[in-house]
Design a protein that fits this description.
The complex is a heterodimer of chains A (about 250) and B (about 800). With about 250 residues, chain A is an alpha/beta fold. Chain A has a single domain, classed as Rossmann fold, CATH 3.40.50. Helices cover about 25% and strands about 25% of the residues of chain A. Chain A contains seven helices and eleven strands. In chain A, the strands form two sheets. Chain A has a nine-stranded mixed sheet with strand order 2-1-3-4-11-10-9-6-7, sandwiched between helices. Chain A has a two-stranded antiparallel ribbon with strand order 5-8. Chain B is an alpha+beta fold. In chain B, the strands form seven sheets. Chain B has a seven-stranded mixed sheet with strand order 11-13-9-14-12-15-16, sandwiched between helices. A seven-stranded mixed sheet of chain B has the order 29-31-28-32-30-33-34, with helices on both faces. Chain B has a six-stranded mixed sheet with strand order 3-4-5-8-6-7. The longest helix of chain B has 21 residues. The chains are: A alpha/beta (about 250), B alpha+beta (about 800).
């Protein structure tokens, strides 16, 4: 599995849990860019009915996994940690993992971001406003980041956010390292939640794992935009297309 | 009063009426004298005493909440003029059948796939579409008055389960919410033991947020209305739209199949909820009737059901709402019969009686009729999704409801008696017309701007962003027209438009549907009849503004009223129902579901606080191509602005009236037959591409409407002289009046001539043009009435209430 394979139609596993709720639109986005998709419950993996290493891309969609009890994404992260070997194998083979919203929270709490070594270094905490927030925000791409997901994106564009716990927190050392190695993929132009350095998305050092707080799958088709713009339509498309192109 | 020690509460052969009434009060059955007598007679006929479980089952099944007996009663309505002279007397054998059902049956629309028989009505998504859409709105007023957070959560959970229970299970894809509150910015002397409007509002909004967001259904359509009379009785309407394959619209209960419950465990929570909702609120009402929801349990139920439907595991299902198993199993088995063993129920409470298990309203449960050979498959599915399931019995073919607890039968009732035995009582209704006054105090032109500012910062006009932003209105990625649209999402939308390609997993389809609502409760004091028509018209007008196909649309009626034993309350209510009937018939848009909620009144000491009769009309209509919808904000400078529709005299039930002229209660009646023609013509102009923005004139009048259209940096220059001349009304009525029904449209300059040609013979007036600068100017010919800097006015309008 370690070496690069030639795949015609990449297989994407939409890994869900109780309370995941952005699985259909995320699956549709991958279908649209030509992937073969399957929605799989984490329990099916834990029971051994499915194996994540049979897939080329892992997606952790948004939602409220296990009700976000304890803290957002925490329980889902613990279940993933019990699959440590499988995930390590997947990441070592440099296959892409994309976590959106709750998926980002899960990746952070599993310790797959910003470093994919199963040690949690940062967290996503309650928004400064104190509650869930759903609106469109402007973000800026860090073109220097190693992320494989950002090819073709305009410099600045709008994406919708919908989260209660989206404020990225890290201590000074970790945050300096994130910035100096360009692990911040996206930054808010008008910070909606109080994230450090206005960070909206993180990558790991290799660039195959991304966690993103806004929802690219909700900015995928031009009709999803709240107002008509020239260049920014269907900007979310690139994230999914890049993942599929990468594994092809 | 002697009570038998064991399971029998009284001896039907010895009990007298006084004892019955005392028992009724003691146990809170909310049964009336007639009903008590019939129950006693039934048990005398079968020569035995009733068990507690039986009486409780009957009380729940016959409650106002479950059977809507007031609306289904015979009714005599007397209408008097303001001097007390009788003008008219109407007699109804069944008020509901002769108003709401009458309209739908008269219209006989072929696109209605199912009406009035299931949890919610279903209409075709579009011509010959293989999909249907269903829509249901519920109220959860009583629980929200005393425990707003839990009350709202369980309200949302309940209406979503209603949709899950339609046919073989519709997929819920959109939630709506409409609230009526007292003003949170006003000081009230709130009685001890009751919550302040501020507390109620923040509880209700967080309830919708926490539950709605977690189950992954966008909450994207709603309204809030403020009036002092909702102080002790806030109204909380929660709605849900579902999508269902046409082939799944019907269900069938097969004798021999298993009765299976999926979802939450059963406890003592919410026992007696529907009887509690069928009486007035008082100082003694306790919040122990109200539960807290568990959204993730409901989400699991949704996930299991959607898969189980694909695998054809069950042949029928229904939700567990008011009355718990008693009404769920009772309804499903009404044509067959059922044998239930309550010892199989998974309990979360050990100290519980059989009748409590049977009637418990524990949340997040659905009851399924599962094929014998599919049980294993369902078990596996539930295991993966971590969803509980328990088999509680079988459907039979003996037309009897038999319930066992600890080996003994605690219920043995004939289905026919349970469902048809309810006696009907004639209701008396009276309506006294108030004297109408159209007084308009002249003011200096200098004061126009000040009044405009006060109006756009009034809570019935201001932005609802403080609520909407807390709701996930984007989940599923299908919300094409969101609650806010335009640059930076600055402008408020008239309706919500959903693209169904996402849930149908077909990206080549661009069809969808639009949902909107209308209510005008403060008009009930002046004319409940016109109130209903205004509400209906507003909902439909909102759909027209986005370009939805109202000729294939449907409406929902949700009435709320005070205690119907009061003849005046019944008068308001029945007249509103007649208005609702005429509105539907005239607009040729049928009702597919609805609900009524009574006893929205609070008795504190000797004081009675009543709500005005409130009718929420929710409307839904297909959208042929969601890429072509119309949005409300101005698009380009130098385009002509027209007003379509007609103005009316009066400031009755308007924001202006309440703030500055409360001695004016005049309202102009609506002609909905004419409105239908105008709307269809305007839709034609939209399809031809002539119209590029449209917004309806509602609270705050024309001035507020034009202001909202200008929020995205394109201003307007408006001259109202022509309107004054045509309708012979004052400047103030044109600017701030809310009578009549009108839509402001921006026309693409290059199509103006064709637009005028098309709209010939229709009420259309040119009122100005769009401008480059973000400001609005109102003129009466040469006189500038007022100008407003939109960016400054925006600060006033974007008020945060919480």
């Amino acid at each position: 599995m370690g070496k690069k394979r030639i795949i015609k139609k990449p297989k994407v596993i939409i890994l869900r849990a109780c309370g995941t709720n952005c699985d259909i639109e995320t699956e549709n986005a991958f279908k649209y860019v030509g992937a073969f998709t399957e929605r799989v419950h984490i329990n099916e993996v834990l029971k051994g009915y499915k194996n994540i290493n049979d897939y080329d891309i892992i997606t952790l969609p948004g939602g409220f996994s296990f009700g976000d009890d304890i803290s957002a994404g925490k329980i889902f992260a613990l279940r993933i940690k019990s699959l440590y070997r499988d995930f390590k194998k997947f990441i070592d083979s440099k296959r892409p993992i994309i976590g959106i919203c709750n998926g980002f929270q899960v990746l952070v709490k599993t310790g797959l971001l910003p470093y994919s070594d199963f040690k949690q270094r940062v967290t996503l905490f309650l928004n400064d406003c104190g509650h869930f927030l759903c609106r469109w925000v402007k973000v800026k791409v860090n073109k220097k980041s190693p992320s494989i997901f950002i090819k073709g994106l305009p410099e600045e564009f709008y994406l919708p956010i919908a989260h209660g716990e989206g404020k990225l927190i890290a201590d000074d050392i970790v945050s300096q390292k994130i910035i100096s190695s360009n692990l911040d993929v996206l930054r808010y132009i008008d910070n909606p939640n109080g994230s450090i350095y206005n960070i909206a998305a993180l990558t790991n050092e290799f660039g195959n794992v991304i966690g993103i707080m806004p929802h690219p799958e909700r900015a995928f088709f031009s009709i999803q935009f709240p107002w008509k713009t020239r260049e920014e339509n269907s900007v979310g498309f690139h994230f999914f297309k890049n993942a599929v192109e990468y594994v092809k | 009063m002697s009570l038998l020690k064991d399971k029998f509460l009284f001896d039907v052969f010895k009990v007298n009426l006084n004892q019955l009434v005392a028992l009724n009060n003691k146990y809170g059955w909310s049964l009336n004298l007639e009903e008590l007598k019939i129950i006693v007679q039934y048990f005398r006929n079968i020569s035995r005493n009733p068990t507690r479980a039986e009486i409780e089952t009957i009380a729940q099944t016959w409650s106002e909440h479950c059977k809507h007996k007031t609306f289904n009663s015979p009714c005599v309505l007397t209408i008097k003029d303001h001097r007390g002279k009788i003008k008219n007397i109407y007699r109804f054998k069944n008020l509901f059948k002769e108003t709401i059902v009458y309209a739908t049956e008269k219209l006989k629309k072929s696109y209605c796939l199912s009406v009035f028989k299931d949890n919610a009505g279903v209409i075709e998504l579009g011509k010959e579409s293989k999909w249907g859409i269903c829509f249901k709105v519920e109220t959860h007023n009583h629980p929200c008055a005393i425990e707003p957070y839990g009350g709202t959560e369980t309200g949302v959970g309940g209406v979503v389960r209603d949709i899950l229970g339609v046919g073989l299970g519709a997929k819920p894809i959109l939630n709506t919410d409409n609230f009526c509150f007292a003003f949170p910015d006003k000081k009230y002397n709130v009685a001890k033991g009751f919550l302040s409007p501020h507390k109620i509002i923040s509880g209700v909004v967080s309830g919708v947020r926490d539950y709605g967001n977690k189950i992954g259904i966008p909450t994207a359509c709603g309204s809030v209305f403020f009036d002092d009379r909702y102080l002790y009785n806030p109204l909380v309407y929660v709605g849900c739209v579902g999508i269902i394959n046409r082939k799944d619209v019907n269900k069938e209960v097969l004798p021999g199949s298993y009765i299976v419950v999926i979802g939450g465990s059963t406890g003592k929570d919410g026992v007696g909820g529907s009887t509690f909702s069928s009486q007035d609120i008082s100082e003694n009402s306790t919040s122990s009737h109200v539960q807290i929801g568990h959204a993730i349990n409901e989400k699991k139920v949704i996930d299991v059901l959607m898969k189980a439907k694909e695998l054809s595991i069950y042949s029928a299902l229904t939700d567990c709402g008011a009355g718990g198993f008693s009404s769920a199993v009772g309804e499903l088995a009404s044509e067959t019969g059922a044998l239930v063993d309550l010892d199989k129920v998974i309990l979360k409470d050990r100290d519980i009686e059989g009748w409590q298990v049977w009637l418990s309203e524990s949340q997040e449960r659905m009851v399924l009729c599962v094929y014998e050979d599919k049980i294993k498959e369902l078990e596996k599915l539930c295991e993966v999704e971590e969803c509980q399931m328990y088999i509680i019995g079988r459907f039979t073919n003996d037309r009897k409801l038999t319930v066992k607890w600890k080996g003994e039968n605690i219920v043995e009732l004939d289905m026919d008696f349970l469902h048809q035995g309810l006696p009907k009582i004639e209701r008396k209704a009276i309506w006294i017309e108030p004297k109408m006054k159209n007084k308009i105090s002249k003011i200096s032109v200098m004061d126009y701007y000040d009044r405009f500012e006060k109006i756009i910062s009034d809570l019935n006009v201001t932005s609802r962003r403080w609520i909407i932003q807390q709701y996930d209105h984007e989940v599923i990625g299908q919300t094409v027209l969101k609650p806010f649209c335009g640059v930076n999402e600055y402008a408020p939308s008239d309706a919500t438009v959903i693209w169904t390609g996402q849930v149908c997993e077909d990206f080549s389809l661009f069809n969808g549907f639009a949902v909107a609502c209308g209510m005008k409760p403060n008009m009930s004091d002046i004319s409940p009849y016109e109130m209903a028509k205004y509400s209906f018209d507003e909902a439909i007008r909102n759909l027209v503004c986005v370009g939805a196909d109202i000729s294939r649309g449907a409406a929902l009626d949700n009435f709320c009223a005070a205690n119907p034993n009061n003849e005046k309350v019944m008068g308001e209510f029945s007249l509103a129902a007649i208005g609702a009937r005429d509105a539907s018939v005239d607009m040729e848009i049928p009702y597919i579901s609805g609900k009524d909620s009574f006893y929205n009144q609070t008795n504190i000491g000797s004081k009675i606080y009543k709500i005005p009769t409130t009718l929420l009309i929710s409307a839904i209509a297909p959208v042929e191509d969601v890429r072509n919808i119309i949005t409300p904000y101005f698009k380009k400078p130098f385009n002509p602005i027209y007003i379509v529709g007609s103005f009316g005299k009066g400031f009755g039930a308007s924001v202006y009236g309440r703030l500055f002229q409360n001695d004016n209660n005049y309202i102009s009646p609506l002609n909905l037959k004419q409105n239908r023609k105008v709307y269809l013509k305007l839709l034609e102009a939209m399809r031809k591409g002539f119209v590029i923005s449209a917004h309806d004139v509602s609270e705050g009048g024309l001035a507020a409407c034009v202001f909202e259209m200008s929020l995205c940096f394109i201003g307007a220059d408006i001259n109202i002289n022509e309107i004054i001349k045509v309708y012979n009304i004052t400047e103030l009525e044109v600017l701030f009046g809310e009578c009549g029904s009108k839509i402001v449209v921006e026309i693409d300059l290059k199509n103006e001539k064709e637009f005028i040609k098309l709209m010939k013979n229709f009420p259309v007036i040119k009122i100005g043009y769009t401008t480059k600068i973000p400001s609005i100017v109102f003129k009466d010919n040469g006189n500038i009435l007022f100008t407003s800097d939109v960016n400054k006015a925006r600060q006033l309008w974007e008020r945060n209430v919480l």
